[in-house]
Task: structure prediction
Amino acid sequence: MTQMMTAIAIEGGKGPAEALKAVQIARPEPAEGQILIRVHAAGINRPDIIQRMGFYPPPPGSPETMGLEVAGEVVVGSGRWKAGDKVCALLGGGGYAEYAVCDARHALPIPKGLDYVQAAALPETVFTVFANVFEHGRLQPGETLLLHGATSGIGVTAIRMAKAHGAKVIATARGAEKAATALKLGADVAVDAKSQDFAEVAKREGGADVVLDMVGGDYFAKDLDALKMDGRIVFIASLGGGDVTLSIGRLMQKRGVVTGSTLRPRGADEKARLAAAVEALVWPWIEAGKVLPQVDATFPLAQAAQAHAHLEAGDHVGKIVLITNA
Result:
């Protein structure tokens, strides 16, 4: 191992996709309780774009470089891991690089049958869906999940995890083609949000017990309209606007709950708890073929700018992954 490595930095500290440049920086050294991973693949997520634009700084102590999930080979072990183990891991940052460090408790074994690229598409989305749909949303078998952004990385994962759990899924997407894709991905009902009122469709289907919303804005009133009694609306982003109008009377009538969360700022112990819960519940689904990652495209590490541009174009289905030959 050399003391230097290739990583992706943001030229000028923030900017458009073109600001992403490959640079040489010092290889990280694992602290006590951390492992060093030789990265083979790194998942790209929308929070990376927000960070690149200057609005989502990494948590204290995390690398300034981007990258929230990786798959690779352990070089320096700790805890349950030894050198040579193949893992995927949730990071606070630093995944767009040849090497990355993480809390040993935040790494999971690569599920049987998956390669590095597929495994790199798992941690951020699976942890996010588990925490928000299964914990905050308390989705139960036999209930109905209404989710937006069906063809995004989060959307695809939410469809497949909810179905594996025995729930019904109503998925929205912008455009007839994406709505048709949502059905192929496993949704029971798909709604073209450009031409259909998703609240009316959901009500015809009996309503939603849980709504996973990454849009916000004017979607919220329709979320509430679609909600069953005692239903839960969970926010994970606000791509359509961060301010909503809440009819308190309507919320009271439905005994509804509105909540939301972020994953990255959570403490190390909380992420470790989530990792253990995800491994226990979701990893068997993955190995049984019920929850498989959907990789839309791969790019070499040096082409991180093109990968971000591809994500921002919005035509992808599933995850975009960077590949390094480290």
The longest helix spans residues 268-287. The chain has a mean pLDDT of 96. The chain is about 30% helix and 30% strand. The first strand starts at residue 4 and ends at 10.
